[in-house]
Amino acid sequence: MSYWNEKMECMGAEEMRALQGERLRHIVRYTYERVAFYRQRMDEAGVSPDDIQTIDDIVKLPFMQKKDLRDYYPTGMFAAPMDEIVRFHASSGTTGKPIVAAYTTSDLDDWSEGVARCLTAYGVTKDDVAQVSYGYGLFTGGLGAHDGATKVGCSVLPTSSGNTAKQIMLMKDLGATVLCCTPSYALYLAESIEQDKDIDVARDIKLRVGVFGAEPWTEGMRKALEDKLHIRAFDIYGLTEVSGPGVGGECECQNGTHIWEDLFYPEIIDPVTLQRVPDRQEGELVFTTLSKEGMPVIRYRTRDLTHLTRGRCSCGRTAVRMAKIMGRSDDMLIIRGVNVFPSQVEAVIMSMPEFTGQYFITLDRVNNIDTFDVDVELKLEYHSDSIKNINEIKSRLNAALVSVLGIKPSIHIVEPGSIERSMGKAKHVLDKRKM
Ligand code: DLL
């Protein structure tokens, strides 16, 4: 078994709690003294840095959310002076101001440490060639994966996203063994490789590990990517506000994402009562950065929905495990009063081999009733089937969706390649009710 940082990844629970307490004490005082926002919020809540002694005292601190970061755009949340800031990133908000994150040298070091721990847990070593097909730029995916893979000593191939034909040529010619990108772009790459008559995956493509994250993805998607690319596909999780990719990652047991809790302290709360919920119970994920200097966050509400499990994993790590994220509370669709996550639709489609795995949901309201349309691509070989057979596939999909979601969609079978592919985070929904 290899670890990047055995001490931190496998630390006993009490020792970890003591370390977290010590780091929390520091970060609370540090932010109170340097950032007006924290001082004001803590004063309003009647908490002083002296009240924070152990990690359990974290519940005394107020929560913060995306709006707070937006309100203090661009530099109001920075805790380090500008001459110590060595990097900015920004989150991909579609409306309004982006959220800017700032990093000191030590922050970049901790961030790449997190990614290096993930890569090592996936079995990646300095002998690997890591192709980074996450976008480079303000998005944290590209540079985050790049710095982590460099730290491990991999030969890094920084292709960024897009230009798929060239990506595949370089993947083949330089013998990439690790692919880092969103699962939806990995599916597109896999389809493009399948369509290239000159490439045989077993003979020409050396990939063995996939490092996939930045969007929710299902076990069905994992299986499809593993089968198509002849790899093991691992989840990597992270967010700009906390650092970027590598806040946590799966291990070879693939039974949860280990969160590097010496750096990023996770809590799960009920999003309505804001009370902590017990382990194994689903709620909203909240993070406190325990070592960040540039732009720390304290009790930041991510909106991501998941649950935590503690205890030593079969891999030997004790770092708390997070279940796969089903979606964000703000991605949840309410259709005719029923809660639906796009990932539930994906899970059903991925379970049927007749489909390519690409889908698109359109919602509208006609005569005050929600309409729910799902476009889904049928693989080419089934298009030659009789109408009767295609209708049979469609009604099986319909029945499976009704049983999982509890509501009936209108399904539209479309040709392979007709749904727009994504190079980064996939867009699976158009909600015309909001327009
Ligand atoms: O997506 C950072 C990242 C890059 C993670 C590359 C993994 C790989 P943001 O653009 O700020 O940062 O988006 C963060 O994406 O709150 C989740 O909703 C979602 N997300 C990230 N990783 C996963 C994952 C990057 N593994 C938001 N599974 C987060 C599900 C994920 N959702």
Model description:
The chain is of the alpha/beta class. It has two domains: 1-329, 3-Layer(aba) Sandwich (Rossmann fold), CATH 3.40.50; 333-434, ANL, C-terminal domain (GMP Synthetase, Chain A, domain 3), CATH 3.30.300. The protein has helices at 6-9, 13-34, 36-45, 66-71, 105-121, 140-152, 164-173, 183-195, 201-204, 219-229, 342-350, 380-383, 387-405, and strands spanning 85-90, 100-104, 129-132, 155-157, 178-181, 209-213, 232-238, 245-250, 257-259, 264-269, 283-289, 300-306, 308-309, 321-322, 327-328, 333-335, 338-340, 355-366, 369-378, 410-414, 429-431. Strand 8 and strand 9 form a beta hairpin. Helix 11 (342-350) crosses helix 13. The radius of gyration is 22 Å and the shape is globular. The mean pLDDT is 96. 5'-O-[hydroxy(phenylacetyl)phosphoryl]adenosine binds at residues 91-92, 134, 140-141, 213-216, 235-240, 244-245, 302, 304, 325, 328. 5'-O-[hydroxy(phenylacetyl)phosphoryl]adenosine binds next to helix 6, strand 7 and strand 12.
Main features:
single chain; 435 residues; alpha/beta; Rossmann fold; GMP Synthetase, Chain A, domain 3; 2 domains; 9-stranded mixed beta sheet; 13 helices; globular; binds 5'-O-[hydroxy(phenylacetyl)phosphoryl]adenosine
What is the CATH topology of the largest domain?
Answer: Rossmann fold
Q: Give a short account of the largest sheet.
A: 9 strands, mixed
Question: What gap, in angstroms, lies between the N and C termini?
Answer: 52 Å
CATH superfamily of the largest domain: ANL, N-terminal domain
**Spans where pLDDT lies below 50 across 5 or more residues:** none
Q: Tell the overall outline.
A: globular
Judged by helices, strands and strand pairing, the structural class is alpha/beta
Give the strand content: 15-25%
What small molecules are bound in this structure? 5'-O-[hydroxy(phenylacetyl)phosphoryl]adenosine
